[in-house]
Amino acid sequence: MKPTPLTLGVIFGNRDFFPDKLVPEARADVVKLFGELGLQAVMLDPAETKLGGVETHNDARKCADLFKRHRDQIAGVLVCLPNFGDEKGVADVMKLSGLNVPILVQGYPDDLDKLDVIRRRDAFCGKISVCNNLRQAGIAYSLTTKHVVHPLDASFRADLQQFVAVCRVVRGLRGVRLGAIGARPGAFNTVRYSEKILERNGISVTTVDLSEILGAAGKIADADKRLVAKVDEIKAYANATAVPPAKLAQMARLGIVLDDFVAANHLDATAIQCWTSVQANHGCNVCTSMSMMSENFLPSACEVDVTGVLTMYAMQLASSSPSALVDWNNNYGAADDKCVLFHCGNWAKSFLPDIKVLNAPILGSTLGVENTWGALDGRTTARPLTYGRITTDDAAGVIRTYVGEGELTDDELKTFGNRAVARVPKLQKLMRHVCREGFEHHVVMNASRTAPILAEAFERYLGWEVYHHEAPQE
């Protein structure tokens, strides 16, 4: 997915007894970097305040008014300190604007041969004061890897790209709309969740009885042009040569109705009752439709795992790539740091270079294999891995999460369905945490290195509990 252009507010801090020419130089640096990264900026014009900086309370009010006018566009704020800056002004802008968005604080480094009054910056010190004032005001903020760093330094470029991803996650999860299609399978208490806790966090859930979906699918006639088009779409998406034509049509009918439900309710993601009613009452699996939605950045999770699909959506926002819901399923022989990830399966096509539409042997053992056409078969190849999980803790009234990184490997694996081998450092420690804290057996995987982004967004800006497994030492 190519991310849509993101807009950041920019505050240039200034202090009157430091060199003014440092401010327009900083503006030029930021404009250059934003242009290279495809970012939009909302910042004071040099005609509105001295050099377009924030130096006084009046300047802060002007900047806050500017941010208010663009509040629907601004996803985050960059605080740029060409010199010491006005520590109160930055906090005043955020308080007066009412923006509740991530903030990144950057300060310029001094040159050892330019510590005279003409080029002296002191942003090393000023950044500490700005952060102190933000903390006093209860305003969350993020930091750069280096305490002071030039905006055109590669380190800051990476910091800004990570910050932009944090902004995407925070903005995307505040107001996300999820669909719960059908009741959870009766045997799966593990996917229970608190809709009220989600609602308090700005996450809404739209529910529908599965009978409404199956009923609408059954009314689509064989000659319906949309049915023909959906069958063609499935064939273009994956190798479906083994699927009986009647079953392919059943899969297509489900896909049409699901597309309609998502569009009518403006949903960002769905969690679906994928067994046993759909097989018993419609005669096929819904996996292929779910895979196609996930590949098209409308993630879909099986077994009505609502917080699972919320995790899929969060990881998609962080990485700009599809996610998949998987089971922590099997040990990998005697390897303590490896395991098998599995589902029967509905993973996005991005994970399955050898994707085929087949049936589901496990479900077929009780439901009849002929009723399970539509499950995907394919093996995920070696690639980076970010994994994680969001869950609601009803007893405590909070949202808890864990995230971490590892890798997917090409180790031999002889089985069916959607499958992968994962290597996770200190996997046994992670499994103890998952079990001790009562997390679900479902986890979400994404082919990226985005765990720090998710941890920062979840904990610092959304206020959720985070366990970052084997987090890099800061």
TrEMBL record:
The UniProt record lists the L-fucose isomerase C-terminal domain at 341-468
Pfam families per UniProt: Fucose_iso_C
GO cellular component terms given for this protein: cytoplasm
Q: Record's InterPro entries? A: Fuc_isomerase_C (IPR015888), Fucose_isomerase_N/cen_sf (IPR009015)
**Regions that span the bilayer:** none
Q: Which GO terms describe its biological process?
A: fucose metabolic process
Q: What GO MF terms are annotated?
A: L-fucose isomerase activity
Tell me what this protein is called.
Answer: Fucose isomerase
